Amino acid sequence: MFAHQTTLAGTAVVDGVGVHSGAPVVMTLEPGDAGTGIVFVRATVDGDEHEIPARHDLVKATELQTVLGDADGASVSTIEHLMAALRALGVDNARVCLDGPEVAIVDGSSRPFVEAIEAVGLRKLSAPRRMLKILKPVRVEQGRGYAELAPAPSGFHMDVTIDFASDLIGRQQIRFELTPQVFREEIAAARTFGFLKDVERLWAAGFARGSSMENTVVLGDDRVLNPEGLRFVDEFVRHKALDAVGDLALSGLPLVGRFTSFCGGHKLNGAVLGALLADPSAYAIVEEAPVRREQREPRHAAAPLASAVPAFGPRVD
Predict the structure, then answer these.
(1) Less CB within 10 Å around the terminal CB: N or C of the chain?
(2) Which residues does the Swiss-Prot or TrEMBL record annotate as the active site (predicted)?
């Protein structure tokens, strides 16, 4: 990690379709100037370009995805997988130019974005990196679910739990400190998921039109339908953690603290971040001190499953 801000050292291109819109999209990840953060540049059909900064106050929707929009009505959706990769790898500034309404789903995880970013590398900028340090706990509850942001001496620590009543789901929990290596090896490859029985309902609501077994873990009545199976035995909670990294990246700055969620999703992630930013006494903006080189962490850095029951489940966020 750097004590100075970073940007991409080159330009990367990622293409695919939107998982909800089904629309094709070509995305170009470009270097950004210091202090500009992550900015989505949306080219519309009328030839206009809209710059939409990746900030929490521009979130327009959180049902099954996170959507950003500007005052003119331009929007970009399903940003969370890309934002997770940018935040976890330490990219402070970048421009994401896209010719469609939705970030490409690619394989349903953050791994293609990690690979694209690492292929071009990072460039250190002269400006110091600023961090958002959490000073006191902030908690939001919705039904039986909750999300909390709390102080920690250093780093950003995550504790994510899912729990469903279905015999195919059970309870899964993962705990880790967010570092580039942990994200790359333990979180980035976890894919989005859903039940086959929900497809027609989602289509009718305008969702999942680009979903397929190439970009989604599909669950039948009693098994995973993807021929290749799962990438992790607890892939589902890992993907929930991935989504949370991306949603919380809309703070605009790396966080120093601890995130805990139970039965969470995009809505809760956004709500707890909004509660934090609404209370100036709950955080402080600090400059990052130089840190030693990251140490390699073992595969067992993540906590084991909280239940021996095989855990599979739909996205309900």
Answers:
(1) N
(2) 266 (proton donor)
Q: Which positions make up the binding site for Zn(2+)?
A: 81, 239, 243
Q: Which residues define the annotated binding site? A: 81, 239, 243
236 inside domain:
yes
- Give yes or no: residues 62 and 52 share one domain: yes
Residue 186 is given by DSSP the state: I
Cα–Cα distance measured from residue 255 to residue 181, given in angstroms and rounded to the nearest whole number: 17
* Catalytic residue ranges: 266
The residues, ordered by sequence, that sit 6+ positions from 22 with a Cβ below 8 Å of its Cβ are: 209, 210
Residue at token pair 């809505």: 267
pTM over 0.90: no
